[in-house]
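Supplementary material to the annual report.
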Amino acid sequence: MSAEALSAGVALWRQVADGIEQAIADGRYLPGGKLPGETEIAENYGVNRHTVRRALAALAERGLVRAERGSGTFVRSRRIAYPLRTRTRFSEIINAGGREPRGQLIAAEREPASGALAGQLDLAIGAPLFRIEALRSADGVPISRGTTWLSAVRFPDAPKVFAAKRSMTKVLAHYGISDYRRLSTRITASVVDAADAARLDLAAGRPVLVVESIDVAADGTPLLTSRARFAAERVEFVIEPD
Amino acid sequence: MSAEALSAGVALWRQVADGIEQAIADGRYLPGGKLPGETEIAENYGVNRHTVRRALAALAERGLVRAERGSGTFVRSRRIAYPLRTRTRFSEIINAGGREPRGQLIAAEREPASGALAGQLDLAIGAPLFRIEALRSADGVPISRGTTWLSAVRFPDAPKVFAAKRSMTKVLAHYGISDYRRLSTRITASVVDAADAARLDLAAGRPVLVVESIDVAADGTPLLTSRARFAAERVEFVIEPD
DNA sequence: AATAATTTGTCCGTATGTATA
DNA sequence: GTATACATACGGACAAATTAT
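Predicted assembly:
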């Protein structure tokens, strides 16, 4: 209905895309909600439907909307802002966003430290480790799949404790470690594998953000190292000076 | 030739994977180099070829090796470590890694600020901006495709200056800004689009790391905002306390 | 230029141990 | 305890792509 104003000097599709983006930002279209049909948008702006399609494709490319054939185009839910700082704890971050965090133990195994892991944890090669596989979610929506390694000597019942407390911070607290910090964080991306796709409820081929990190105690002793895969379409890492 | 020692209690394929990973870490297999054939590895470890394939699949999953049918399995070149700090400059980072950085202007256009951009740059909606499309590479290997927006009023000939100096830092210096810092950095991932795939020399479906950032002057005035897409298989963001 | 050899990818099957219901 | 499912490990055969002859 409402005709939108178009200015000169900018590609039409870009103006349409900007207009829709603004509408999403203003809350005129709500997360998860459906946009008007392509023809209707085209009428509103007084442009051809193909111009609208070009605009929607650009927005879809950036992950703002998601088109479903036969159904409509929907506004993607806002990505969860996930700050990466030296004090990074999943539960606190999700709580801060007003969501309900949950950690779920998938599997735990005892295994000897490989060369790489031994180096990161400052242990001898072959030292007994626990490898804990977990799934983390916010309000029931899966966010990340993580693999955590920690000493089986220093944390004798880590899997059991994690299963009960559902949080790695609480596991460390259980062993008397009240504070710890992130020593290093490395970020890459790859395509989700079949197992993670199932757990994270992602379609095949979707990208995941891979975060490898080492957490150390206040005195610098390595505590645990982990490799987490985040559903890229649901999170956004934010880096701001500490 | 050399028979490898196997221990009990750990899945065979995992032991083989650890062994190969260690060999890569030790430099016994060099980046870009070829691993022995699957059958040869199987003989070395005294396991079935399928067990080796399971191990190689795990390493390929983590991006350490890359298999080419008919040719062999190769050690992936180490990802470029790309530190993200408040002082983040592409050329300095690449130089620090002993590589030759290069910035190439692809296109530049004048366009009015959309609502989102105006907010980020603290300008009025519709204020004239330059949108600069650039390709950045290290030793001739494309690393990232970036779109940068900056005020066309404050930086009247930014595209020309960038084309000549090939560095955004030098563009700012040309306008008397000797120092600036990153105000915010947001990281996501998505699948490469066709245009970026061609420029970055990436196969379709490969993931890219998307970095949206805002740079400000020493006094906090926003200078430029950008959205860069990095070939995920060639870089690794590193976050360490400033 | 055509063929053979090599190497990874896929599919079949068999057997065993280990959780889980 | 029994049955079922799953991961692991091995063996063989062939397809598909690449490289060497």
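Strands of chain A lie at 65-68, 72-75, 80-83, 101-112, 128-138, 141-151, 180-191, 207-217, 222-231, 235-239.
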